Amino acid sequence: MKNLNIVVLLIVCVVFIISNFECSNKENLTMKIEKQAFGKIENGTIVNLYTLTNANGMKVKITNYGGIVTSIYVPDRQGHFDDVVLGYDDLEGYLKVTPYFGCIVGRYGNRIAKGIFNLNDKTYTLATNNGPNHLHGGIKGFDKVLWTAKEIKGKEKVGLELTYLSKDGEEGYPGNLSVKVIYTLTNDNALKIDYEATTDQPTICNLTNHSYFNLKDAGATPILEHELMLDADYLTPVDSTLIPTGELRSVAGTPFDFKILTKIGARINADDEQIKYGMGYDHNLVLNGKAGELRIAGKLFESTTGRIVEVWTTEPGIQLYSGNFLDGSITGKNGTVYKYRHGVCLETQHYPDSPNQPNFPSTVLNPGEKYQTTTVYKFLVEK
Ligand code: BGC
């Protein structure tokens, strides 16, 4: 009897070892990261494009210029893979003009009123590059700098680590800010973005990714039929220059109530002051749940393809931007013309103008502290 037990145990062990070996072999065969030249910046430095592929064939392309996610290929209901984000085929496009396609935004994502903020009794003046306000880090934000890239290969994941040192005074911000952004593609079709930063002087920091999604056709048609859910009971209403008034307003009964899946186009032209100021949706929603903990923030669904992207984040807010400034003047990947509202951004972040809003969660980063946030875009298909 005892011998029989030992034999059974041995067989179980052998089967376990073989199946694990096969699994890891499959992983090694299919999960990969490849690098190719993407173009050159003005000083002649070569910029690369990294293609991350997971075991299901999902692909994410990222360049170390601006940390831009240039493409995300995910399956539809039939298992057909298509790109679902807007952007350019080559670096040239991004160098010429871009409404922040797919990039890392920083040092401060979103707006700072009049480009001015106070920190420890000192006033800092930043570029006013969006009407009277500062937007997305200024003239040359993190979307327009070259990041140092390191490939990451792990069990069940491939990734790209990007680092950048933003010098004290760059774009008017105080302190040397050492930034690390890690993009990870996992075998459950999730693109995870981990943001980290440390500083040697008190400063402000608010990083995000600015991907424009169109789950149907990567920007060939409007996103108005896409359905959106946002787990947010409040929004931060804005003035006519899109600076928050400081109020947290309930979304109940307004076009900003996305608590259940609702077509983006359903109320986008509503007779509503906030909608008029944003020319559609261009607003920060206050996410429910505890900031600092990874929880679901929202879900975007496209019914003809069955594609879904879930957004998970540790951030307190999300900027819903319905591509209101796309006007057909940009021709992107595969000759696609990006017209009015052909892409939607779901930018996880702190609330706009937080440095000037004492009641908003703080975006101050002090020496000795670590800025650390995570956002996950998880791709699924409705069968
Ligand atoms: C802003 C928009 C802006 C866009 C830039 C968004 O994050 O909220 O107002 O036009 O970025 O393309």
Quick tags:
single chain, 383 residues, mainly beta, nine-stranded antiparallel beta sheet, six-stranded antiparallel beta sheet, 3 helices, 30 strands, 11% helix, globular, binds beta-D-glucopyranose
Total count of helical runs of at least 4 residues: 3
Instruction: Write down the overall mean pLDDT.
Output: 94
Instruction: Estimate the global geometry from the Cα principal axes.
Output: globular
Low-confidence stretches: 17-27
In helices, the fraction of residues equals: 10-25%
Decide which structural class fits the backbone.
mainly beta
Ligands bound, unique: beta-D-glucopyranose
Main sheet summary? 9 strands, antiparallel
Over the alpha carbons, how many angstroms does the gyration radius reach?
22 Å
Distance N to C terminus: 50 Å
Count the strands?
A: 30
> Can you list the strand order of the major beta sheet?
11-12-13-14-30-24-23-18-21
What fraction of residues sit in β-strands? Answer: 35-45%
Describe this structure in words.
This protein has 383 residues and is mainly beta. Helix content is 11%, strand content 39%. The protein has 3 helices and 30 strands. The protein has helices at 2-30, 91-96, 273-278, and strands spanning 32-40, 46-53, 59-63, 69-75, 81-83, 104-105, 111-112, 116-119, 122-125, 134-135, 148-154, 157-166, 177-186, 190-199, 203-204, 208-209, 212-213, 227-230, 232-235, 249-250, 262-263, 282-287, 295-302, 307-313, 317-321, 330-331, 337-338, 344-349, 364-365, 371-381. The strands form 8 sheets. Strands 11-12-13-14-30-24-23-18-21 form a 9-stranded antiparallel sheet, with no helix packed on it. The chain starts with a helix and ends with a strand. Beta-D-glucopyranose (BGC) binds at residues 99-100, 242, 282, 319, 321, 325, 345, 347.
